[in-house]
Amino acid sequence: MYSGRVASVEPGSIAEEAGILPGDLIISINGHKLADIIDYRFYSTEEEIDVLVRRGDEEAVISIEKDYDDPLGIEFEDELFDGVRECGNRCIFCFVHQLPRGMRRSLYLRDDDYRLSFLHGNFVTLTNVTEDDLKRIIEQRLSPLYVSVHTTEPELRQQMIQSRNAPDIMQQLQTLAEGGIILHTQIVICPGTNDRDHLARTVKDLASLYPQVASIGIVPVGLTKHRRASLPHIELIDTEGARQIIRQVRAWQKEFRKQFGTRLVWASDELYLVAGIKVPSAASYEGYPQIENGIGLVRQFIDDLRRTAKRFPERLPYPLRATLVTSTLAAPVVEELADVLNRIENLRVKVVPIINEFFGESVTVAGLITGKDIKDRLMKADVGDVVTIPSVMLRDGVFLDDMTVDELSAALNRPVIAVEPRPTALVKSLIHIFSQSELPES
Questions:
Q1: Are 62 and 20 in contact (CB under 8 A)?
Q2: Domain boundary residue, one of 295, 313, 342
Q3: Per the structure, how many domains does the chain have?
Q4: Is the pLDDT of residue 280 over 90?
């Protein structure tokens, strides 16, 4: 039987007045068993509820009267009471299958849980979703969802995700769309497999479900040097391949703006950087519906720099030299920031792109750089007074290789600070650390 263990109870809350304590197990509400925090929120909105609680070996029903939608004031130890649904596919581009052995266990977890898609925007394949799950999603209005489509051709999709039993994704999306669920979709491009004509069909099929399909993101496959030999061979997207995709995207955007009033489909920042083409304007991203998927981050960075550079101080109170660590892909963009920062009197910064030795040089994004690669690169360099790293390099406060920021700082004998990938955040951090002053708020 599933149940949620209470982590804390808000003082003065309805739950505290009802006698619910940390450590209690919440079994059901009004007879509905709870599989997760979504069930809890959905069934606890009523004005009269009976909460089945287990404490030790004893169970009791607590009857509560409250105003509609008033929260009970309970925090749970976990969001999913029945555990995370893991992926049963063997996608030909799966990044987990390209990790070396010996890393922390959490990195090998391949979650494919529609509830995490609703709660946190995780992309899921829907291959482990049942008819009852689809009904629940619609009944409880679990919208929006983020779906990894890759291709809408059934046989090709089964080939790409290595699952013969994968349901027809278009049928699933159609059901969810008819149920009023908003869908953000992504396509991971594997050259020679699901690009060009296959990509065109996928985009056309997804566009047929507009407005419920609210965005289509196109991102390139990522390959590491640890990719298992048993996996099918995949080529990286090269400059011409990236340009071809951008040409397709621009044509679709023009068509969809006329048809729907929205561009609907967007290429990832990485594709523009590989292609050597300027990223579109902020207005072109229409509110950045897939910013967390790396679509529009570069534009936000550039615009933040242009908007806030005039508020940067003219000088620092005393000399400061800083090293800005970044990835090889983002280096040209960060260099633009460095040019502006070096106009500040007493401040000298330099950009050091890190070649990814751990995963291989083909991995060029900042979020996959390890502490050891940074250490090895900077131990040979004059890093100045302070080193900054983008916060996306950290997971739960540590790098992917389990090195901590403090360990990196000790090895370099310099302060290392993690900052949000925004120019304003970087400048505020530098000035705060060395002069204990703050820039004005945006």
A1: yes
A2: 295
A3: 3
A4: yes
Query: How many Cα atoms sit within 13 Å of 280 on the Cβ side?
Result: 20
Residue range(s) defining the domain that contains residue 272: 96-295
**Is 88 within a domain?**
no
- Per residue in 308-318, pLDDT (tens digit) is 998 888 988 88
Same domain, 163 and 179: yes
Whole-model pTM over 0.90 = yes
Both tokens assigned to 130: 């049942």
313 and 429 inside one domain = yes
Sign of CA dihedral 252, 257, 259, 261: positive
Say if 84 falls within a structural domain.
Answer: no
Task: Tell me which of 295, 319, 348 is where a domain ends.
Answer: 295
pLDDT per position as a tens digit, 366-415: 999 999 999 999 998 999 999 999 999 999 889 999 999 999 999 999 99
Residues 23 and 119 in one domain: no
* Per-residue confidence (pLDDT) for residue 418, from 0 to 100: 95
Structure tokens at 191: 């050259």
